[in-house]
């Protein structure tokens, strides 16, 4: 009987302990947690980790001691400022409910939300509506290990992190309360962390770190940067931003994303009107799902940024409400993505670096967009198809102060490039189109080039597509500008090379009438001949370099050798828009092309190596060549 009575008394004590409620009275020494006189029961609460703690509204209690919280509730409307250690610990497989309700827990020490060894209990730590958990200051630390942070009311409370955060342990953790994240190290050292707000999160400039084999996923309405800001850090594991059903992320202001490593986009829509700058990071789109940029600018920064759009499967990147996708990187890879705009809101795709098409089995569509190529498109054997709601601009620029400095946008490859129809939305191909590298056939549709544009042709022999380049066009064609020949064999007078063909008549064929190439100390002049459905280069003159160098009366150097600049005098100069000066190395490679000619034309030679160069001046159908020596 005594044993039964003892067990009954013990269980009753346990029930009392588990249901104890401690209310702050403030009858003791100041506002300190560790003074029992401040509590209604005369004992410091949660000494066994269990119970309800009530701190009334308007009261802030300060703790510098160690607090263990295993089951119970903090409530009452007040605030606990924990400057010691606060451990929210699972020690049981059942009933480890820990709740913040109408309460503020302010951590300026170390707050750990974790499980004891061997515990598999999956019950979350609840931050309910009206409650806030704040971890703040650089000295504060929030450590997560195997316990989710959630809520069990109609709406969540707020998790406000303006201190370092560390996720460790192999177990996955999900945070689905609403969060404010700012400023300090946000590190996933082990396992995975899924941040998936119920309403929305605000993320301002944390330093994100994801270790090898760890993962961090922002899912849903995560709002990045209410003003100009940055996310910095490192990423050796997996980092993704994605949608959660209809909830999607926003970029507000300008966000500089500088996490060393890879950022993954799969199923995601960005809105917010801001700019996402990828610097010191690699943007990777899996191609498993479509991507939408709605009134968003994405810029892959030069030098340190890079991007891969797809993994060999077709998908679409939708640009809406004036969105722009711009590349400034030399490592930008198109592998299955098509770019689709509305055709009415000036959505743009801008290439200011090197865009490489990786896949030759997928058609890459550019529909309803303004496509600007300012640098280099390496098409390889791939396909770019532009529809008639798009426009294409291939860049050309000449510095009026230094006319020798000319920049061309270039498209190179042996695949297929389809322009918009000339009759619906004119293209502006002012730059280079080049089959290659090597001898190639380049297929085009609706080919068009302006008076500044050039077609670059390699001629190594007589057999088309095997020994010299051919552009094969379907649909409309319009050719102005010129041809530039890289010659590596000795053709004969009258030899003809059909370098451009079209399946319909060429609408406008008014290219420069001749072009020249130097090979084996001979200067070859090609007449450019327009026919209804092709353009042919025919050898019309073959002269030795010495033949040309003998006649320098009308075109000469002020002094020769030259050092940092070459000054060319042109006698009886008259304005001629077709006049051109070309500078070649002795191997036949063209070094400079100057089309803005004056009576005295100055060319900067600071970047020329010491040696002999051949300079040609062509005007009014007359070609003069002289020898220039660079010597320092």
Write the layout of secondary structure elements.
Elements: H1 2-18, E1 21-23, E2 50-54, E3 60-63, E4 66-69, E5 71-75, E6 79-82, E7 85-90, E8 98-100, E9 104-107, E10 110-115, E11 125-127, E12 132-136, E13 141-145, E14 149-150, E15 158-162, E16 165-167, E17 173-175, E18 178-182, E19 185-188, E20 192-195, E21 201-204, E22 207-210, E23 215-219, E24 222-224, E25 229-235, E26 238-242, E27 250-251, E28 254-260, E29 262-265, E30 268-270, E31 275-278, E32 282-285, E33 291-294, E34 297-300, E35 306-309, E36 315-320, E37 324-327, E38 332-334, E39 337-340, E40 348-351, E41 354-357, E42 363-367, E43 370-373, E44 376-380, E45 383-386, E46 391-394, E47 396-398, E48 406-408, E49 410-413, E50 416-418, E51 428-429, E52 432-435, E53 441-449, E54 454-459, E55 470-479, E56 482-487, E57 496-502, E58 508-509, E59 514-519, E60 522-531, E61 534-544, H2 545-549, E62 555-557, E63 565-570, E64 580-585, E65 590-594, E66 600-604, E67 611-619, E68 622-630
Parallel strand pairs: 1-2, 2-5, 3-6, 4-7, 5-8, 6-9, 7-10, 8-11, 9-12, 10-13, 11-14, 12-15, 13-16, 15-18, 16-19, 17-20, 18-21, 19-22, 20-23, 21-24, 22-25, 23-26, 24-27, 25-28, 26-29, 28-31, 29-32, 30-33, 31-34, 32-35, 33-36, 34-37, 35-38, 36-39, 37-40, 38-41, 39-42, 40-43, 41-44, 42-45, ...
Antiparallel strand pairs: 47-48, 57-61, 59-60, 60-61, 62-63, 63-66, 64-65, 64-67, 67-68
Organism: Dokdonia ponticola
Domain Secretion system C-terminal sorting: 560-630
Protein name: T9SS type A sorting domain-containing protein
Task: Tell me what the structure shows.
The protein has 632 residues and is mainly beta. It has a 16-stranded parallel β-sheet with strand order 4-7-10-13-16-19-22-25-28-31-34-37-40-43-46-51, with no helix packed on it.
């Amino acid at each position: 009987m005594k044993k039964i009575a003892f067990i009954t008394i013990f269980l009753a004590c346990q029930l009392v302990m588990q249901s104890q409620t401690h209310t702050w009275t403030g009858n003791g020494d100041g506002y300190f947690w560790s003074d029992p006189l401040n509590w209604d029961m005369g004992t410091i609460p949660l000494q066994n980790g269990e119970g309800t703690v009530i701190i009334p509204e308007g009261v802030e209690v300060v703790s510098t001691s160690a607090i263990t919280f295993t089951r119970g509730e903090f409530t009452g409307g007040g605030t606990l400022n924990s400057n010691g250690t606060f451990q929210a610990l699972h020690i049981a497989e059942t009933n480890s409910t820990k709740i913040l309700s109408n309460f503020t827990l302010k951590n300026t020490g170390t707050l750990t939300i974790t499980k004891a060894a061997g515990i598999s209990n999956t019950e979350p730590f609840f931050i309910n509506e009206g409650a806030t958990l704040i971890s703040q200051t650089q000295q504060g630390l929030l450590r997560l290990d195997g316990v989710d942070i959630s809520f069990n009311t109609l709406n969540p409370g707020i998790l406000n992190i303006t201190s370092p955060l560390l996720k460790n342990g192999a177990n996955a953790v999900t945070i689905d309360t609403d969060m404010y994240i700012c400023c300090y190290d946000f590190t996933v050292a082990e396992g995975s962390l899924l941040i998936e707000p119920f309403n929305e999160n605000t993320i301002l400039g944390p330093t994100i770190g994801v270790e090898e084999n760890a993962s961090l996923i922002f899912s849903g309405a995560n709002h990045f940067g209410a003003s100009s800001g940055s996310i910095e850090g490192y990423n050796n594991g997996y980092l993704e931003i994605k949608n959660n059903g209809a909830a999607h992320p926003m970029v507000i202001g300008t966000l500089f994303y500088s996490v060393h490593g890879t950022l993954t986009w799969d199923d995601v829509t960005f809105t917010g009107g801001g700019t996402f700058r990828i610097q010191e990071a690699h943007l990777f789109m899996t191609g498993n799902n479509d991507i939408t940029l709605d009134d968003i600018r994405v810029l892959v920064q030069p030098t340190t940024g890079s991007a891969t759009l797809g993994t060999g499967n077709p998908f679409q990147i939708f640009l809406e409400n004036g969105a722009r996708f711009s590349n400034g990187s030399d490592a930008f890879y198109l592998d299955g993505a098509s770019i689709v705009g509305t055709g009415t809101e000036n959505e743009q795709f801008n290439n200011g670096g090197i865009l490489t098409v990786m896949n030759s089995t997928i058609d890459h569509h550019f529909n309803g967009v303004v496509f600007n190529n300012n640098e280099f498109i390496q098409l390889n054997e791939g396909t770019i198809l532009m529809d008639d709601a798009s426009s294409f601009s291939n860049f050309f620029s000449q510095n009026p102060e230094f006319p020798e400095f000319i920049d061309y946008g270039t498209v190179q490859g042996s695949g297929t490039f389809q322009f918009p129809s000339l009759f619906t939305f004119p293209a502006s191909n002012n730059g280079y189109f080049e089959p290659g590298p090597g001898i190639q056939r380049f297929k085009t549709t609706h080919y068009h080039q302006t008076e500044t544009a050039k077609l670059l042709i390699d001629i190594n022999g007589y057999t088309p597509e095997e020994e010299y380049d051919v552009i094969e066009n379907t649909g409309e064609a319009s050719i102005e500008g010129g041809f530039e020949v890289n010659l590596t064999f000795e053709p004969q007078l009258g030899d003809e090379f059909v370098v451009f063909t079209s399946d319909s008549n060429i609408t406008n064929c008014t290219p420069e009438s001749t072009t020249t190439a130097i090979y084996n100390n001979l200067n070859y002049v090609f007449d450019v001949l327009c026919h209804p459905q092709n353009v042919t280069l025919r050898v019309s003159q073959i002269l030795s370099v010495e033949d040309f160098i003998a006649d320098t009366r009308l075109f000469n150097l002020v002094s020769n050798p030259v050092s940092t600049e070459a000054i060319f005098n042109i006698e009886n100069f008259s304005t001629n828009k077709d006049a051109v000066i070309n500078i070649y190395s002795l191997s036949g490679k063209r070094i400079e092309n100057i089309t803005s000619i004056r009576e005295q034309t100055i060319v900067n030679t600071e970047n020329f190596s010491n040696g002999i160069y051949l300079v040609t001046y062509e005007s009014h159908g007359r070609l003069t060549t002289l020898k220039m020596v660079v010597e320092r």
